[in-house]
Amino acid sequence: IIWDGLQVAIMKQEKTQWKLFLETLSAAQWEFTFVLLGVTCLTLVVSLMFTSLWPLSALYFVWLVKDWHTPERGGRRTEFVRNWRIWGHLRDYFPIKLVKTAELDPKKNYILGIHPHGIMCAGGYTCFSTESCGFAEAFPGMRSSLAVLAGLFRIPLFREYIMSAGLLSVSRASLTHVLSKSGKGIALSIVIGGAEESLSSSPGVNTVVMRHRKGFVRMALEHGADLVPVYSFGENELFRQVIFSEGSVGRRLQDLFKRLIGFAPCVFLGDRFGLLPYRTPITSVVGAPIAVPKLLVPTEEEVDHYHNLYMESLSKLFHEHKVSCGLSESHELQII
């Protein structure tokens, strides 16, 4: 931890004040997008209905009805947004690095499992929903996309923005469309632990929620998409979260939100008056693919078999790279 802090201090000394400002600005806009942009967009569209500009909202809602199923039909990705320079500044803020350990065949499709979720999944977003970390150069012929909570695509205006960055709905219909109608060379990234895993995000903790999460394995079997584990070392170090104990009022409220809207609000503090994430390096290591056969109707035994192979591969990936990524030899990966 001391060494990581020293590295960050040295990197900051080597950067100009303007570069540091741009990095801070990029981190602030990313956090604003994650926490408040959806609410802001919804408030704006509804508020306009009560002004002289109400036709704008009315026309948009007509468009929204017509375009409702686009997020489940491959979205509306634009390379322009994925290549914004601001993503490079966001990458440098921490910094974030993508590490390749094996080749991915562009004649195949893959489901990449991203671990851990952390508070805001900075590693997963930056590496697989932008081009700032060099995914296309590391894996020629592959096209990466990140699947996120389906409910986000029901928020007016906000849905247009996240679709432009290549984000996809994690619904079954969306994943089926991408894996069956988008050709080959698809690297579909899914944050397996989701909202439940975010609640256990804390510095020094390496816990992933996936022991009972098998839907992504079934999806891989149904489409013959190989499975690839990805571990983002440092993801849990970005914020200090208030962890509510099981059964407490705070935890019950988080569980209620998770059931109602699909995600759990976290209470966390970071750097700069507690608002920004800490400048902690993140290393997203892409593991070797696990060959998966195509089975139109996989049995429970077949799903369990490949699910166990995946957990073993993830654990192996973690232990092979933990020391080089700043953890001690004694660190263990807890799978729950």
TrEMBL record:
Keyword field contains Protein biosynthesis = no
Tell me which Pfam families the record gives: DAGAT
Keyword Secreted applies: no
For this chain's UniProt record, which GO biological process terms are given? triglyceride biosynthetic process
Enzyme class at the top of the EC tree: transferase
- How does the UniProt record describe the way this protein sits in the membrane? Multi-pass membrane protein
Listed EC numbers: 2.3.1.-
Taxonomy, superkingdom? Eukaryota
Where are its TM segments located?
A: 34-63
InterPro entries assigned to the protein according to its UniProt record, in alphabetical order? DAGAT
- One annotated GO molecular function: diacylglycerol O-acyltransferase activity
**A GO cellular component annotation in the UniProt record:** endoplasmic reticulum membrane
According to its UniProt record, where is this protein mainly located? endoplasmic reticulum
Location in or out of the cell: Endoplasmic reticulum membrane
Per UniProt, the keywords (alphabetical) are: Acyltransferase, Endoplasmic reticulum, Lipid biosynthesis, Lipid metabolism, Membrane, Transferase, Transmembrane, Transmembrane helix
User: What family is it from?
Assistant: Belongs to the diacylglycerol acyltransferase family.
The entry's protein name is Acyltransferase
- Can you name the source organism? Gadus morhua (Atlantic cod)
